[in-house]
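Hey, I was hoping to borrow your eyes for a little while. For a while now I've been wondering how a particular protein folds. The fold is given in discrete form, as structure tokens running alongside the sequence. Could you read through the record and tell me how the tokens relate to the sequence? Take your time with it, there's no hurry, and the full record follows here:
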Amino acid sequence: MSQPAPSPEPYTGTPADLRRILSDAGYMTEAVPKLARLAPMGSNVDPEAIRAALAEPTPPNLLARLFYAAQPLPRAQAESLLAPLGCEPLIAAGLLRAEGDTIRSVGAVVPIANRLCLRDFESWATGMPMQEDYVLGVGLATTMLAGFTVRRAGERVLDIGTGQGFQAMCAAEHAAEVIGTDINRHALDFAAVSLRLNAIDNVRLRHGSFFEPVAEERGTFDLLVSNPPFVIAPPHDLAAIGGRWEGDRFVQDLISTAPEFLRDGGYATILCNWHHPSPDEPFARPLSWINGRGVDAWIVRLKTDSPETYARQWLRETAAGNGQAAMTAAGNSLEHWLDYYKRLNIGAISLGVVYLRRRAAGGPNWSRTDSLSMDNYTGHASSQAQSLFDAETTLRSLPTEEAVLDLRLELSPAAELAQRLALDQGAWKPRQSLLRETAGFEFAVGLDGLTTQILAALRPDAPAREHILALAKSMRADPQTAIRQTAPFLARMLKLSHVRVAGR
């Protein structure tokens, strides 16, 4: 007599299984890219075009209706699409809610950098304007900051204004503990759901304004990261992009307070706007915010806009998102914005990244400023930023410029030499040599035959002086002339991150 088949084990999936389900169904690779083309950031969206694109009831389209276009699905259909996980774990996690016989998502689920991120549905999907507590998605500024951020293993990280939680999730990959704070409870709710969807358990979320939730934890963080609501605009109600502080006051308070919360050796990485009276003096104000705060600073200006260009850009962005209704208190017009800027003596507005490092010993604190282009940025700037801080501190501690030759130097592992060759008397010889970094900012610099040989001669087994003297001897060059001419070149290469002090 045959034995009855054993009952199958009950499925014990978690919300983190949603990523595999969405991926297997083609939501990531088919539906989201299609909709992103139809609904680009900063552009007006045609809801009819979206509905037409999702008309065929394929699994990726049905999932997109639920998780991208704010449309409910019949419960039975949603259960089938989300099998074997089903709806209940996602309802319990706060992602889905039941409405009678239908299921609706509380927000849009968007795959970004192998993570699932939750944000509020856009106005084209809901037919409603942005609300005061609107949770933005992962935009260009968010991904830029993630690439700029200094990252080291085992850190304690503070994310100020965590929003949908993307920076906190990035930090969770290398940190021991992450604290994400935000004044927007709705944003914290969404961030908590995203953490569950991505099975992240080392992030703690706290409600409160600015540094209030960590007021008793000064000097305990290895990294502070922030993508604050930095838009410089007349007062309005859309908290996600600023409007509650005059001018760039939020950014000023953030940058000037951040050093208090860093451990010695800890870094802050902040992407923000700041304003200045004229285009000719872009750094004076942010530098004044950190003077005497016990930090070294590297401020990189990425671009500067006139008040009119800046205002037009953000008015276009908010109109595309149907956020104008939320900004009616600002009298949402170009003239109003320009009058506001004139009252605050704003002649230009810059976008940049502010790096800070807490340092209590090893000489006086320093500040460095650079105006660089995103066209010459390759991403993943963490190692470069740390090398630059080390180089600046080292160079400023040397008794003379020539003392740089007493350091053990090595070429940056991200350095790349590109050459154009020309035929010269039967042999290919370099016509142009360009050295650049392949991680972070390129800092491209032209080299000649001699300087390429100098860099190739550097090795960490001995001070640079020994290798330069050996090279001079092999070339039958005067050793003192070689030393005198090489020191300033190597100091410059250190400042541009092409060369670093070995072992640091």
Summary: The longest helix spans residues 479-495.
